[in-house]
Amino acid sequence: MDLKTKEEIIQLYEGHFQEEMTAFEVLPASGSYREYCRIKSKNHQAIGAWNQDVRENAAFLEFSAHFFEQGVAVPKIYAVNDAKTCYLLEDLGKLTLFDYLSRTRELEGFSEKIVNVYKKVLRELPKLQITAGKGINYDYCYPRAAFDKQSMMWDLNYFKYYFLKLAKIPFDEQALEDDFQNFSNYLLDAESDYFMFRDFQSRNIMLREGQVAFIDYQGGRKGALQYDLASLLYDAKADIPQTVRNELLEFYLDELEKYQAINRDEFKAYFTGYVLIRIMQAMGAYGFRGFYEKKEHFLKSIPFALENLKYLLENNNIPVELTELFHVLDAISQSIYLRKIGLQDDALTIRITSFSYKKGIPEDPSGNGGGYVFDCRAIHNPGRYEDYKQLTGKDQPVVDFLESNSDMADFLSHVYGLVDHSVKMYLSRGFSHLSVNFGCTGGQHRSVYAAERLAAHLREKYTANVLLSHREQDF
Question: How many CB atoms lie within 10 A of CB 277?
């Protein structure tokens, strides 16, 4: 985020809340060209967004106002600048469904706890699509008002030119084009008078106080119910086990029948088709960002997508002949080159966790045991003071306190020395896992700060997979 953009967002924040900013954090880049930050002052905090695409902003702001009025859990819009290029919205926290899924899965696999959170999401989805979707002004949709023939062909050609060609998958151009036409015609026969979120995936679903909320629906438009369900259940990096997908599909259909009657077999056939077009759209994005723009982290989703394709090809229930398309998809699913892309290497994984001693020392989910446990309770505790009780070790006032009113720096210097020694030895001997835990009384201030600092230190110094979690702050 450049200085001019930062100043513009701060000016909007301070003008709206009539308070001086005390903390400004640039948030990690997403798959789009929008930029986000978290801003805090004495009594308020908000997310600041900047996007030069005014029409996309208008869609997001219009949909947000409508859904908020309908009681859907979306961020409240606080302020928008005159140029409509930046705006302030409610901060829904830092825990996405994907984050929760990743952390919980590390500890206990794809447990019933995770399945129950997905069921919370699926209870809300038909409400969002059907009830709250009524009355939306689709004139604001961008770039199209509906997921129509043109939209489908854009996605299919995006897949062809940015994935197939760049991944060097051979195909008959005319035969594939004919199948694209037939495939899109079939999908258009599905009932489509509903709100389609478009990017209904785990990174766009927030978890807060036991409830779910939604962000990033600016690409929404009119479409079929199956598309968003496909986006959620076949979200590549979420890697939901197929048995769980089948269970969640049936759960969604049970919820949907509370709103309207459906033919389950027909719904499932269309669902397979929408899963395929969603996967192809996602692959086009992986190819554009990864192969074309050389952003390698986008390629890491490809192996997961291949497994999804393999299952769908083996369980195809689409009643349309699509010979060349399925030939191409089969070639993709069997490509040795693509299967190697994005797979994790043998780099060391360092798992850093903050915790409260009241709830016990975390177990090592790698199964190796061992690792470090550092006790932060001898360090001056900001949690004893009223000004800091509602904050954490990631908030700037707590950071300032620990760096100026405690011996945390000296404590961490010893931690760095011990952990650095182990990391160097583990790397040289090809070990795969190291755990480091920081405990304090509540798992909120000192341990969180120490874990954050060690993670930053190790990420800067070593080529390793550093996984950071704050156990007592998880959903």
Answer: 22
Would you list the DSSP string of 37-82?
A: EEEE-SS-EEEEEE-S-HHHHHHHHHHHHHHHHTT---PPEEEE-T
What letter would DSSP give residue 141? -
Strand partners, 26: 37
| Other residues' Cβ atoms within 10 Å of the Cβ of residue 96 | 19
Nearest to 4 by CA among 35, 30, 31: 35
3 state DSSP class of 467: strand
d(CA 270, CA 326): 16
Contact 445, 473 (CB under 8 A): no
* Stretch (H or E) spanning 413: helix 408-429
| CA–CA separation, 376 and 49 (whole Å) | 36
pTM: 0.72
Q: Is residue 380 within 8 Å of 406, Cβ to Cβ?
A: yes
- Reduced to 3 states (helix: H, G, I; strand: E, B; else coil), residue 170 is coil
The rounded distance, in Å, linking the Cα atoms of 470 and 463 is 22
Rounded Cα distance, 127 and 142, in Å = 22
H or E segment at 88?
strand 86-89
* Cα–Cα distance for residue pair 182/396, rounded to 1 Å: 56
pLDDT tens per residue across span 206-256: 999 889 999 999 999 999 999 999 999 999 888 899 999 999 999 999 999
DSSP 397: H
For residues 332 and 314, give the distance between their C-alpha atoms in angstroms, rounded to a whole number.
14
pLDDT in tens, 4-21: 999 999 999 999 999 999
